[in-house]
Design a protein that fits this description.
The structure is a single chain. The protein has two domains: 2-63, no CATH class; 71-355, Cytochrome-c3 Hydrogenase, chain B, CATH 1.10.645.10. The chain has a three-stranded antiparallel beta sheet with strand order 3-4-5. α5 (148-169) packs antiparallel against α6 (191-214). The protein is 42% helix and 13% strand. It has helices spanning 71-75, 84-87, 95-110, 116-143, 148-169, 191-214, 217-223, 233-236, 241-245, 253-256, 277-301, 357-368, 377-384, and strands at residues 2-3, 20-21, 31-35, 47-53, 56-63, 178-179, 182-183, 323-331, 334-342, 348-354. It has 393 residues and is of the alpha+beta class.
């Protein structure tokens, strides 16, 4: 069933009073089409089952597949420390937000105080994660409209950030760096200088992207006024992050509920008004720019001396008192959180992950795509910035 309203009502004399029509594939008016799965990255291993009338979408059903699944139950069967290599996989392009939310929840339940220096290093890691994720997303949004060169530029810039991750953590994608009590290592010698050089390279690429993508008549034609998120949908569908901010609603966990050291940084959430593909891209692009500035602020504030990890009990025999908590952070897609229940044993009693992708990729996307053109599907999906493992978790 789809809402056809008054549009081309003469095609469907069977239209009901509420503006809906029952889809009858045997009528010959409709066709079925699978869109996806597409990989790597932006929309991942996710498929859409589309019902079409010509090239217009009448109905969309999301299939997130079996890329990764069962994380929450797997975590409930492992000791607290053994889950850190696992949580990274819930969101591959941004594993550090999983590490932070999980570690912060355990620390709150166990009454562990994280040292000042470790808090600053965590803030640095989270903003580096935001930067590399945005760079990949910008290339994906451009690629969804056939502008592959932009993707080549931004992936090169992202690789520069990944090199800094590798220097600091030993890993390019999965870091397992934020652990209970703080972080695994101190900053390497000369890290600040090399990070500043990386930021200069990134900003140079962003200058080129702004000229080639955002001033491009083709991109504007394909993105302006397309796939609008109405402000009244934001609370109704649980929309957060850039998708909400592009509708003029300044939702940002970093500002609304400051964590680690965000309360000591100088920034304001980037917002827009038109809430279409172009505006969402602009909000993310400007947020990416702001992230480079935040990293500079953080590098200037990290103490030279101090502990980077609190003293912890034996991780193989660590038991946490019974309790429950929810810890959240602002990832590139919006509010990311972990709800954890403990029962006094050495294992989590219950784990539930709140990723923005469920509300954005399923409920919102299925509504937005109705009555849109098939050619706009890829650009719309990328503009919502979703990762299927957060849904099939």
């Amino acid at each position: 069933m789809f809402d056809y309203g008054e549009k081309n009502r003469e095609l469907f004399p069977e239209t009901k009073s509420d503006g809906t029509v029952d889809i009858d594939l045997s009528s010959g008016k409709f066709t079925k089409l699978w869109h996806g799965p597409n990989h790597p990255g932006i929309t991942g291993n996710m498929s859409l089952e589309l019902t079409l009338l010509g090239d217009e979408i009448m109905e969309s059903k999301t299939h997130v597949g079996y890329l990764h699944r069962g994380f929450e139950k797997l975590m409930e069967r492992r000791r607290f420390i053994n889950n850190f290599p696992l949580v990274c996989r819930v969101c591959v392009p941004e594993p550090d937000f999983n590490e932070y939310c999980y570690a912060a929840a355990l620390e709150e339940l166990a009454g562990i105080e994280v040292p000042e220096k470790a808090q600053w290093i965590r803030t640095l890691i989270l903003e580096m994660a935001r930067l590399q994720s945005y760079l990949m997303w910008i290339g994906g949004q451009a690629g969804s409209f056939g502008m592959g060169m932009v993707g080549q530029w931004t992936l090169w810039a992202r690789d520069r950030v990944l090199q800094m991750f590798e220097e600091l953590t030993g890993g390019r994608i999965y870091h397992i760096f934020i652990l209970p009590g703080g972080v695994r290592n101190n900053l390497t010698e000369g890290f600040k200088g090399r990070m500043l050089e990386t930021l200069a390279d990134v900003n140079s690429i962003l200058d080129d992207v702004e000229r080639v993508l955002f001033n491009n008549a083709v991109f504007k034609k394909r993105a302006v006024g397309i796939a609008v998120i109405h402000p009244e949908w934001v609370d109704e569908y649980g929309i957060t992050g850039p998708n909400a901010r592009a509708a003029g609603i300044p939702k940002d966990v970093r500002k609304d509920n400051p964590y680690v050291k965000y309360g000591e940084l100088d920034f304001e959430p980037v917002t827009g008004t038109d809430s279409d593909i172009y505006t969402r891209a602009r909000v993310r692009f400007d947020d990416c720019r702001m992230t480079t500035g935040l990293i500079r602020q953080i590098l200037d504030r990290i103490p030279e001396k101090g502990e980077f990890k609190a003293k912890m009990p034996s991780m193989l025999h660590w038991k946490i008192p019974a309790g429950e908590t929810y810890k959240k952070a602002e990832c590139t897609r919006g509010e990311y959180g972990y709800y954890i229940v403990t029962d006094g044993s050495g294992y989590p009693a219950r784990v539930n992950v709140r990723g923005p992708s469920y509300t954005h990729a399923v409920t919102l996307a299925e509504k937005m795509l109705v009555n849109t053109n098939l050619a706009d599907v890829a650009g719309t999906l990328v503009s919502l910035h979703t990762y299927p493992p957060e849904v099939e978790r």
